[in-house]
Amino acid sequence: MAKVLVTRRIPEAGLALLRDHVEVILNEADRPLTRAELLEGVREADGVLCLLNDRIDGEVMDAAARVRGFANHAVGFDNVDLAEASRRRLPVSNTPGVLTDATAEMAWTLLFAVARRIVESDRAMRSGRWGGWGPLQFIGGDVTGRTLGVVGAGRIGEAFALKSRGFAMPVLYADERPSPVLERELGARRVSLEELLGAADFVSVHVPLTPATRHLIDAAALARMKPTAYLVNTSRGPVVDEAALVEALRAGTLAGAGLDVYEDEPRMAPGLAALDNAVLAPHTGSATVTSRNNMALTAARNLIAMVAGERAPDCLNPEVYD
Prior knowledge:
The chain is α/β, with parallel strands linked by helices. It contains twelve helices and twelve strands.
């Protein structure tokens, strides 16, 4: 029976499906494998189910002499050297479509939490510092009727924007391609990133991490935003220059930020944790029962196909089958 390495425990639905077809070598520790453990673990594996914090590069592929493919337990895949995998004719897959609504909902959660200062006020209640209602306490930003800016109108960006319908928000979006759905359903306008940043009251980022999007939201981009505006990022941490964001939040040139991803996870930029106008979630955008089960099942199905020599349903480099 073929063996597969699962680099960290995933929901049981995915593990059970794998065990019906292959022998599973599982990292039982609730932490990522060290580099040495990863290199050792892939040596006897016929396939690997990996996570975003596993760096799958040429060194790993050299060690993985028997591996027939890598199934990434994530939508993003910037942790995998896709070009190198393709050169070696190794299929790589991801889990598209299974966390769209969950991540869109998380972006809204962060938007409301930072605009209405929920974390600050929760902290005041728990500490016993709140002395009763006052007219100047915890005044936040309005949402209804304010302009929403969506950076990246892919599956998640579209789902996020469509959920604005109950709040009568004019919608701007920046993307290389038009979104007929957003324009038809919301009357959204496609504009340049520069125009969006200058006009939006809320900017939510939904782009993949590529060389072109690394630090897409940098100090210059943040300076274009209104001092009353809020930034939300549920895409990838390095899309935002975190140090520049800290400076903008500290200086008051930006009203607030809601983050679920970070530039150097699990670490944060110095000073970020001390800011009351930042709401910080620990990369939980996909953390719903349905989404995480479906991620595990999707990754398992892809890996089973790879190990069997069949075409993976969600292959990112289909040219390896030509």
